Amino acid sequence: MRSPAIEAAVGSDIGKRYSANFDVTYLREQPLLAVVADGMGDGPGSAAAGRTAVDIFVGYLTRDPEPGPDTFRAAVAAADARVSQIGQELRSLAGCTLTAMVATPQGYWLVQVGDSRVYRLRGGLLELLTTDHTMAWLGAVNGWYPFDSAQAASARYHLTRYIGLGAVEPDVLSVTMRPGDRYLLCSDGVSEQVSYDELRTFLHRDEPPQSVITNLLTACDRAGGNDNATAIVIRVD
Q: Least buried of 113, 190, 192, 229, by fewest C-beta within 10 Å?
């Protein structure tokens, strides 16, 4: 597979709510490997989970000369087992989301556990490519309660899948890259604070990824800075 020319950038902001940043990232442009993990809560288990999950996931992929879906699933299983063990050792919650975009000889893949997200802007249309593994998502899809209700807000924090849950399986999705595409990987600190229209506007501008990151994080701060906010922006030239 001939890799397209891409430009990518990563950024993160602690926000105003927490005393530390529990989001963890990894970014390599060629071959592309982009990862965002978001720790659950603000305890030591949260800090350990994100760092551990990213290190294990990246380690599996960098050691495999031709990674594919089997590698992704093995990496997630290993990270899940280790983070679950950390929770037992700490006797407290240890968990995180993990969202990744990976280039392989067979094409490009998304790997998803939790409620961090991947968006794609193509031809002016901004699409959410991943599914949130939350009770809020299930409730919205099945009509259990209004999307903007108190029940939905509470269910937003009830993850149905996360690294550290035990025996967790990721969503694995094949995607294509076309000239002009813009991809955004982000923690919920971005998607919960920056509206769909703002995301589309920022990604649509003819600006380098680092400028888009700066604008996104500024928007998160302007919205209140209620969470750690982390984003990776990928531009296909």
A: 192
Which DSSP string do the residues of 150-181 spell out, in sequence order? HHHHHHTT-BSS-BTSSS---EEEEE---TT-
Residue 63 has which token pair? 């050691």
Decide if 13 is inside a domain: yes
Tokens linked to 162: 């996360």
**pLDDT at site 21:** 97
pLDDT beyond 90 at 33? yes
1 assigned to some structural domain: no
DSSP, collapsed to helix, strand or coil, labels residue 11 as: strand
Query: For residue 105, what pLDDT is reported?
Result: 93
Give the pLDDT score at 157: 82
Domain limits at 105?
A: 6-236
Task: Give the number of domains in the chain.
Answer: 1
Alpha helices of the chain — where are they, by DSSP H? Answer: 44-63, 69-90, 135-142, 150-155, 188-191, 196-204, 209-222
DSSP 8-state symbol, 194: S
Q: What is the CATH number of the domain that holds 221?
A: 3.60.40.10
Whether the full predicted model's pTM is greater than 0.70, yes or no, is yes
